[in-house]
Amino acid sequence: MIRDMTVLNAIGPVFLLMLTGALLHRSGRLCGDMVQTLNWINYWVALPALLIVKISAAPPDFAGAGRAGAVVGGCALLSLALCGPFIMLLKLKGPELGAFLQAGFRGNLAFLALPVVIYSAAADVSAQRAALGALVLGVVVPLYNLISVIVLLIGRHELGVRSIPLILRKVFSNPLLIGCAIGLTLSWGDASLGLLLSRTLSAMGAFSLPTALLCIGGVIAEMGLRGRVLPACAATMVKSVLTPFVGFLIARSCGLSEHEMIVTLLFLGAPSAVAGYVMAQQMGADESLAATSVMLSTLVSLGSMAVIVHLFA
Asked: How far apart are CA 98 and CA 139, in angstroms?
């Protein structure tokens, strides 16, 4: 009974907020321009504020974040290999190849996995788990950005020396990485934000999670199923089923702690990132495949993440 309530309390708010966002979009209250503006505020302001507060407030577990980040990053690379048989079977190439590879490895960590990490923790360990999740996010985000740009360039046959400035810009201009760096600097220096900044950033951070989930629901309702269902199902199988299972085997063999295990598996079980759809649009990949993958993987991943919370939280 206690485990069932843990699952409900962790996954329930995520599902209900996404459902609310979808209903608001259907009613015309959460339109495309509003979603775009809220996502921009979340990405550039609110989520970095949340990361600064969470990382600077709790003792940083650099060793644990390194172990969990290494497993998540390694499994992201491994998921590209898991995509191989499906690529050959479905004969994917060009723009659809880049979109498929990105949908198969890139998870929605900041907007979906991190809220579940926070909601799945008991009150007495919530700050510790949230800080660990934020640190792992800082480790993995640059790698995700790097791989995303590379696979999308491969799909366009444009990967080369001239693409290096674009790759570096996408990796190091990420505001989530900057937020993690600021939080780590404060933690390393044993510096306090002070009451004024702490309250301001905490308010911004509190804004980030619910609005991010509302926007995901609105985006999914807007995108819907845009065709390319078969390759999207294959990408969802890799992202939401195979990768978490393989990640569990690797994590268990590495002897991760309880907190490291739950953060690692929830990050691996997260659905394809909405940001991946936006990047696919910007870089000329198959946006129909990217959109359908986001929708299908989100539905499947809610079940996968519920199982993970039930077994490990």
From this structure: 23
CB atoms < 10 A from the CB of 12, how many? 13
Query: For position 222, what pLDDT does the model report?
Result: 79
Q: Nearest CA to 232 among 183, 184, 280?
A: 280
283: which DSSP letter? Answer: T
Nearest to 66 by CA among 113, 129, 136: 136
Instruction: Work out the average pLDDT over 244-258.
Output: 92
pLDDT value of residue 226 = 60
Q: What are phi and psi of 224, to 5 degrees?
A: 60, -165
Task: Answer whether 267's CB lies under 8 Å from 235's CB.
Answer: no
C-alpha span between 303 and 270 (Å, rounded): 10
Domain ranges, residue 288: 2-312
Confidence band (pLDDT; 50, 70, 90) for 193? confident
Burial tier of 255 (Cβ tally within 10 Å: 0-12, 13-18, 19+): exposed
Total domains, the chain = 1
Joined together, the tokens standing for residue 190 give 């044993």
Rounded to an integer, what distance in angstroms lies between the CA atom of residue 271 and that of residue 103? 9
Contact 136, 68 (CB under 8 A): yes
Q: Where are the alpha helices (DSSP H) in the chain?
A: 2-26, 32-41, 47-57, 62-90, 95-105, 114-119, 126-155, 164-172, 175-188, 194-223, 229-237, 243-253, 258-269, 274-282, 287-312
Helix (H, G, I), strand (E, B) or coil at 272: strand
Q: What is the pLDDT of residue 80?
A: 92
Contact residues for 110 (Cβ-Cβ < 8 A; gap 6+)? 47, 137, 141, 176, 212
DSSP string covering 57-80, please? HS---HHHHHHHHHHHHHHHHHHH
Location of structure tokens 């843990």: 6
Answer for the pair 47, 110: CB distance below 8 angstroms, yes or no: yes
Q: What is the CATH number of the domain that holds 102?
A: 1.20.1530.20
